[in-house]
Design goal:
Strand order of the largest sheet: 3-4-2-1-7-6-5-8-9-10
Strand content: 25-35%
Order of helices and strands: EEEEEEEHEEEEEEEHH
Low-confidence stretches: 200-274
Helix content: 10-25%
Largest sheet: 10 strands, mixed
Number of helices: 3
Shape: globular
Distance between the termini: 36 Å
């Protein structure tokens, strides 16, 4: 009997992935929306371990989403959806973090995908993002010795410009002296990276992430290599994932406020580097 596809969404404030249900199910927690509607969620707080099948851009009635396709250790399809745009029409924070890693991802390699929302020390804000690491599905462990190459940011710190892959946010001065944030160049670049690395790109099977790659299928779907490949290939059915959102899903928490606006004579972009505890 074919396994049922699993569709996961992101809980913005916590970074937790969850499966949604209108009815009560075993392993699901009750959730009450801001309007008092009851639904049920199965949380995946340790992220998702699986064979990476690709990433696509999905059109939904809630807007565009980035959908990541994984195959879990039991051979089931798992689709992880991240909103592509935020309320200001810019690239959303989780999608941005994912896109910055997409050029390093390789189809049929085993990864752990782990969204996070980590409090910034000494502030009321959080750093939001997605951690992706090479992993062992059977042991549910990650490889710390083989890091993926993330696209770097362009930023200015202590009046020194560091040029990275991703363009910096620009600041312009209004007549009243206030500063206006413009991230058009940055978002355009990120969207192009997403398009270039989405499922179907000829570059997908030829990308390298540096170093000696780990074996993708060791212990993943059985002991016989031919069985492992046949099992995984058989699951490449490319169904249309339909995610059951609550109709009155409250708006996500606002994107954290940026650092205080820089002085007009020397605008500075925020240094987004952060040391994560995982």
């Amino acid at each position: 009997m074919a396994k049922e596809n699993k569709y996961l969404q992101i809980e913005f404030g916590t970074g937790n992935l969850f499966a949604y249900s209108k009815e009560e199910k075993e392993g699901y927690e009750q959730h009450e929306s801001s309007k008092g509607n009851i639904s049920y969620r199965e949380y995946h707080k340790e992220g998702v371990y699986g064979i990476y099948r690709g990433t696509s851009i999905r059109e939904t009635k809630f807007g565009k989403e980035v959908s990541v396709h994984m195959v879990d250790i039991e051979g089931g399809n798992v689709y992880i959806s991240f909103p592509l745009f935020d309320q200001n029409k810019g690239i959303a924070v989780y999608a941005e973090s994912l896109i910055a890693l997409m050029p390093a991802l390789e189809v049929n390699f085993v990864y752990r995908i782990f969204p996070y929302a980590v409090e910034r020390k000494g502030t009321q804000y959080k750093n939001y993002g997605v951690s992706i690491k090479h992993a062992d599905m059977k042991e549910r462990t990650v490889r710390e010795d083989y890091q993926l190459n993330r696209l770097t940011y362009t930023y200015t710190k202590d009046e020194v410009l560091t040029v990275g892959d991703i363009p910096a946010v620009k600041w312009t001065k209004h007549v009243d002296g206030s500063m206006k944030k413009d991230q058009t160049e940055k978002d355009t670049y990120l969207y192009k990276v997403l398009e270039d690395n989405a499922t179907g790109s000829q570059k997908m099977s030829n990308k390298t992430s540096g170093g000696e790659p780990p074996k993708a299928f060791d212990g993943a779907l059985g002991s016989d290599s031919s069985t492992k490949y046949k099992t995984a290939d058989k699951l490449e059915s490319n169904p249309e994932p339909i995610i059951a959102y609550e109709q009155d899903t409250p708006k996500p928490a606002p994107t954290p406020a940026p650092a205080p606006a820089p002085k007009a004579e020397a605008p500075k972009a925020e240094d987004k580097s952060v040391k994560l505890p995982f």
